TrEMBL record:
<feature type="transmembrane region" description="Helical">
    <location>
        <begin position="221"/>
        <end position="238"/>
    </location>
</feature>
<dbReference type="GO" id="GO:0022857">
    <property type="term" value="F:transmembrane transporter activity"/>
</dbReference>
<dbReference type="Pfam" id="PF02653">
    <property type="entry name" value="BPD_transp_2"/>
</dbReference>
<keyword id="KW-0472">Membrane</keyword>
<feature type="transmembrane region" description="Helical">
    <location>
        <begin position="65"/>
        <end position="89"/>
    </location>
</feature>
<feature type="transmembrane region" description="Helical">
    <location>
        <begin position="145"/>
        <end position="163"/>
    </location>
</feature>
<keyword id="KW-0812">Transmembrane</keyword>
<dbReference type="GO" id="GO:0005886">
    <property type="term" value="C:plasma membrane"/>
</dbReference>
<feature type="transmembrane region" description="Helical">
    <location>
        <begin position="271"/>
        <end position="290"/>
    </location>
</feature>
<protein>
    <submittedName>
        <fullName>ABC transporter permease</fullName>
    </submittedName>
</protein>
<keyword id="KW-1133">Transmembrane helix</keyword>
<feature type="transmembrane region" description="Helical">
    <location>
        <begin position="183"/>
        <end position="209"/>
    </location>
</feature>
<feature type="transmembrane region" description="Helical">
    <location>
        <begin position="37"/>
        <end position="59"/>
    </location>
</feature>
<dbReference type="InterPro" id="IPR001851">
    <property type="entry name" value="ABC_transp_permease"/>
</dbReference>
<feature type="transmembrane region" description="Helical">
    <location>
        <begin position="96"/>
        <end position="114"/>
    </location>
</feature>
<feature type="transmembrane region" description="Helical">
    <location>
        <begin position="245"/>
        <end position="265"/>
    </location>
</feature>
<keyword id="KW-1003">Cell membrane</keyword>
Length: 310
């Protein structure tokens, strides 16, 4: 189905893939913020995941190991942030910004030797006859395993946060670290785990960019995706399903601007390039304002350091 030179079915199919990096990063950041830690280093973790995942995939010839390498790199970056903010009690905002700058610089250095190199391909899942179903087959059954994993992670995070003891402890630490500590919960350990999980997902998102979306290594290739992930978490009111909606909206606009360029619309390329970021933020702000009466407040301890002696 083509309207105005735009393949609508193709657009919907592409948005799922285009949304995956931001969805992974935003899901991970949601978990980190639920524990009461504000990590502004998502961009740095994503770019390190991108270069580490790319390097691992090229070295081994296995994209799965590439994604694993990206997740490990992101988790290590997050652990570094956790040490700085949870043990040395540094300011979380300043530390997060420093983490992003560190990641951007280190990834540029590591990635110099990988410019112009092609990674091993990430195969799409073969669903057999399901892929041949008109419309639905192309939209739902034509993607690689990472797309489905990102959706599964949203479901798992929602279930864990809402229905399990692990989620209860995580939310308790995020709402009042002093009360959680008084009840015997290990606040710092919980936050370390939440940050490492968030970093691993951000690293996966970065690896998806360099192994699937592009696929190649380009300096600064995250291009602000980490900041969009942060914005989505806040305007989604720390709810997994709203994070999914925000990420898919961003991916849809990204896919649309690429199709508009391909269709030859006389719109300046710079406007098309910035459109996904601007429109996503504007729409999220509007939705947040409309549903203000039902907006969930940020975790009460978000951004606050925990002193074990308190």
């Amino acid at each position: 189905m083509i309207i105005g030179g735009i393949d609508i079915i193709g657009l919907i199919a592409i948005l799922m893939s285009a949304s995956t990096p931001v969805l992974l990063a935003a899901t991970g950041e949601l978990v980190a913020e639920k524990s009461g830690v504000l990590n502004l280093g998502v961009e740095g973790m994503m770019i390190m995941g991108a270069v580490a995942g790319f390097a691992a995939a090229v070295a081994t010839g296995n994209p799965v190991l590439g994604f694993l390498g990206g997740a490990i790199a992101g988790a290590l970056m997050a652990t570094l942030f956790a040490v700085i903010t949870q043990i040395f009690l540094s300011n979380q905002v300043a530390s997060g910004l420093a983490l992003t700058l560190f990641g951007l610089g280190l990834s540029a250095l590591i990635g110099k030797g990988y410019e112009g190199v092609r990674p091993p391909p990430t195969a799409k899942i073969d669903f057999g006859p399901l892929s041949d179903i008109p419309v639905l087959g192309r939209i739902v059954f034509s993607h690689d395993w990472m797309v489905y994993l990102s959706l599964l992670l949203v479901v798992v995070v929602w279930i864990v946060l809402r229905y399990t003891r692990v989620g209860l402890v995580l939310r308790a630490v995020g709402e009042s670290h002093d009360a959680a500590h008084a009840l015997g919960y290990r606040v710092v350990a919980v936050r370390f785990a939440a940050l490492a999980f968030g970093g691993a997902l951000a690293g996966l998102g970065g690896a998806y960019l360099s192994l699937v979306r592009v696929p190649q290594w380009t300096e600064g290739m995250t291009a602000g995706a980490g900041w969009i992930a942060l914005a989505i978490v806040v305007f989604a009111s720390w709810r997994p399903w709203r994070v999914l909606l925000g990420a898919y909206m961003f991916g849809g606009i990204t896919a649309l601007q690429l199709q508009l360029q391909a269709a030859g619309y006389a719109i300046p390329v710079h406007i098309l390039s910035m459109a996904p970021y601007v429109i996503t933020i504007v729409v999220l702000v509007i939705l947040s304002a409309i549903h203000r009466h039902g907006v969930q407040a940020a975790p009460a301890s978000l951004g606050k350091s925990f002193h074990a002696s308190s």
